[in-house]
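#struct-pred
JK: can someone run the complex with coenzyme A? inputs below
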Amino acid sequence: MNSSFFDIRPEKLEDAAIITAILDEAFGLDRMTKTSYRLREGSAQAPNLAFVAELDARVVGTIQFWPVSIGGKAEALLLGPLAVLPAMQGFGAGLRLIEHGVAVAAREGHGLVVLVGDAPYYAKAGFRKLEGNVLMPGPFDPDRLLCHELTPGAAEGLDGMILAPHRMADA
Ligand SMILES: CC(C)(COP(=O)(O)OP(=O)(O)OC[C@H]1O[C@@H](n2cnc3c(N)ncnc32)[C@H](O)[C@@H]1OP(=O)(O)O)[C@@H](O)C(=O)NCCC(=O)NCCS
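RT: done, structure tokens with the ligand placed:
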């Protein structure tokens, strides 16, 4: 099996239960304690930027993007969660989901995608370490804070906390 076996399509409302099951299986139930979850609390997914991977019409992978603000000045998309059913991992569904999502984000005019994850994996899809004085609202490993510029220079000179957009409005 290879990545061409997977179909990538937009997430639908009725995918919610299977997506939760995939996230529970891939990450475990303690996933809600992660700093990335703090960034999504009370926020809404970026419209048109959630996709699933299907194999034989069965959902086996999920990717979402969420809007964030960096230092109250720059806008970006937070990639995640990304997960593939354990039995389906290693066949390229994850990379297909990332590449598709990032391509749609670029087409929709977004300039920057950030995430917290394994640098060697996401480097395969064009991500690199986010340099600069950027913080998150909770513990994080700076070597795992990654970015992908969709607009050249969008990751330059960033400074401040990554927060959900409504948290900036509250400030
Ligand atoms: C991470 C995840 C989404 C990747 O999906 P996947 O479909 O298994 O990944 P792919 O098949 O697209 O991977 C393609 C390549 O990346 C490699 N790879 C996978 N995970 C990797 C990692 N953590 N570091 C480096 N390389 C990795 C694979 O070996 C493969 O390499 P190859 O093409 O040279 O053989 C999936 O493993 C998963 O759901 N993991 C648990 C949840 C998770 O950790 N999500 C990411 C949070 S940051």
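RT: quick notes.
The radius of gyration is 15 Å.
Helices lie at 16-27, 35-40, 93-107, 119-122, 165-170.
JK: thanks, will look after standup
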